Amino acid sequence: MTDAVTHHLPLNSGKTASVSAKIQKLTVKLAIATFILMAIGSATRVTNAGLACPDWPLCYGTLLPVDRMNLQVFLEWFHRLDAAIIGVGTLWLAGRSWWHRQNLPGWVPWMATAAVVAISLQGLLGGLTVTEMLRFDIVTAHLGTALLFFSTILVMALLLSPYEKHTETATPRRLTWISAIAAVLVYLQSLLGALVGSRWAAHQCLQISQLCGVLHSHFMGVLPASLAVLMLGILAVRSPNLPARLRQLNRWGVGLLLVQIALGFATLHLHLQVEILTVAHQSVGAALLGVLVAFTVYGIRDRLTAPVAATQ
Asked: What region, left, alpha or beta, does residue 126 occupy, with left being phi > 0 and alpha being psi -120 to 50 degrees?
């Protein structure tokens, strides 16, 4: 059991702890920047700014199109700038992880490399969204890849974060499974939401009764994702000796779910005329995914660090 813990979790001695802490801080910054990137991307879409810069990777043939700058151009330009910073940061993360691999858990450089692959694909899809004139499948894949990258970086940050050994009862295995399933369902629901947005299905269904099937699929997806989060919430409340960190994450998860549902109804009721509600709807969905990923990771860590008898 000790070997498994040592393999998956950061060591706490000397140089290893120092290197792990620096890598962990970098992953936290990248996760925050990625969350902001997704929010800006949503704002770019709802304000019809996706093609405000007609070329790629430059904008009107320059790094800073001062003469062309307006709100739409700024959103698209800043979206690309944030993406470029994240890309450079991810390359730095991978480089440092391989350079210091002797002082890090073995999985770190490999996961950092996977993050490089994800952000590279994300950049490619970002370029294609412009060159292919916001084709709906590319736009949907663009967000899906962003969420996968966000989750990958978040998992790295959580696994490398300081963790106090839970010495009482291990987190019930069923909670970890339910949170993982809920995370997958929320991710799929986010993809359906991206499809609705990229095809303007809500507008077309409300106005001319087209693409209602796409919108209704998004509505139907609310039920299984919501039930999974609520089931996790109920079982977590009823689980004795659950670590305080997991109890807090559980409260956040249920709270974000309720906010997300309210935002969805408000957005539809107002016929998508309030752009900030649409941006908030997608952002809260990404935050909910992050909370569920965090619950799953910490639940697994809690079981790994619990006494052997407690996990049986």
From this structure: alpha
Tokens coding 146: 């962003």
Residue 253 contacts residue 292 (beta carbons within 8 Å): yes
CA dist 172 and 245 (Å) reads 15
Give burial (CB, 10 Å; 0-12/13-18/19+) of 184.
middle
Using the structure block, give the residue that is written with the tokens 């997608």. Answer: 282
Q: How many CA atoms lie within 13 A of 219 on its CB side?
A: 11
Q: Determine the length of the chain.
A: 312
Check: CB of residue 35 under 8 Å from CB of residue 150: yes
C-alpha 143/C-alpha 123 separation (Å) is: 11
Read off the amino acid at residue 159: L
Residue corresponding to tokens 């992050």 = 290
Q: What is the pLDDT of residues 102-141, one digit of tens each?
A: 999 999 999 999 999 999 999 999 989 888 888 888 988 9
| Contact status, residue 36 vs residue 172, Cβ threshold 8 Å | no
User: What does the DSSP 8-state code read for residue 47?
Assistant: T
What pTM was estimated for this model as a whole? Answer: 0.88
Cβ count within 10 A of residue 261: 14
C-alpha distances (whole Å) from 243 to each of 30, 164, 248, 287 are 27, 10, 9, 21
How far, in Å, CA of 31 to CA of 113, rounded?
16
